[in-house]
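Re-running the complex after MR caught last week's input typo. The corrected sequence lines follow. Everything else is unchanged.
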Amino acid sequence: MNDLWGAVGHAVHLLVTGEDYVWEIAARSLFVSGLSTLLAAVVGIPLGSLVGLKRFPGKRLVVTLLNMGMALPPVVVGLFVYLLLSVSGPLGFLRLLYTPWAMILAQTVLAGPMIAALTVSAVMSANPAIRQTALSLGATSWQATLTLLVESRFAMGAALVAGFGAVISEVGAVMMVGGNIAHSTRVMTTAIMLETGKGDFQLAIALGLLLLLLAFVVNLGLHALQHGRQPA
Amino acid sequence: MMSLALGQVTHGYGGRPVLQDVSLEVPAGRALVIMGRNGAGKSTLLRLLALLELPDRGEVLVDGAPVPRPVPLALRRQVALVFQQPLLFHSSVFNNVAYGLKLRGLPRREIRARTEWAMDLVGLTTLAARDATRLSGGESQLVSLARALAIRPAALLLDEPGGDLDQENARRIAEVVRSYHETVGASAVLVTHDLLQARSLASQAVLLKQGRIAARGSFDSVLRQASALVDAEI
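Corrected-run output:
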């Protein structure tokens, strides 16, 4: 137990004194997961909005598939992206395997269905009175739809936060397609695995604390989005 | 100025008729009160007059001409409907009141001037920067009314304005509606259970019973048709 508290103390020291190795990994994690979430949102929010708003044959199946996509196992996604980017794969010529871009691609595939599915849910559960009110004040059909989407922005923000939370904490996909290469593809989750394996608990705990801190900040953001609705 | 009318309208949802063979007219610049108990079809009638829906059978007429399908946007934009349960957008009171004007792409200066005029009309100026979703029921109703008035509709339709409000707020809403109706010359249609409010706003009334018109005429004559009124439990 004393060893554990000693490790925690040293971990805090590492964080406070600004150990370059720790902050480099943290910065890469933020870059990879942040950009993945952004790309997933660019695809997921319009797709989710479209599925949520439109009536079409097979809509229930599409919604079910998107919901299933929320539970995609990271290692399976990692395997799929690995095969896609490996030398003999269809995108092998891009030579992206074991680069941060491969990790971004894998995490985008992971976060995309989650953001799309949560957007579908947000749009479908939006108050129907929003559209009626907009139309009663002279909105065109498109303006009424836009108003509904704007009014769903808090739920969509929550979808983004959920997507980011899922990818920054996953390890399977980034390990498979990134390879955990020092100063290149090492991120917090893969580094924690490595340092734990090596027995360097202090560094592992420091990274773990940083990851927890990030998760806390992300959840704080989610809370602010849901409860701190400031006037536009 | 704009006249609204329904000609032998039958309308329903999911095969269930809500209105049957209803004809009525709201002459330009006049006010009409619609009475009837819950489920009589009052709100459906308002939605038809607001051109949000077109009837299954019969016609909606604006200035004597049948409204074509689909409803032209320019025509729909001359009518405003204030719902019984107002929905305010997650934004400031000012932005809520300005909403209809922004939809019309008006110049920013005109939007500000008309929004301030409407807020002043209902006495909301001091609340302009407040989050509209955190207002009391009475304040929400006033914002909803100001939002409709800001677009200066030729016909103003109100579904139970002040239905859940205290007497003072209900009286305030009635005063604002009467002032707008009289000064702008807009047609007005009001659904209400509040007889005092109804009498202060309109001289003509229609009584709906189970989707049909049970009585019509001057407000006092409709009231005098005691048997129909007792039957409608007003």
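None of the earlier attempt is carried over here. The longest strand of chain B covers residues 16-26. Chain B has a mean pLDDT of 89.
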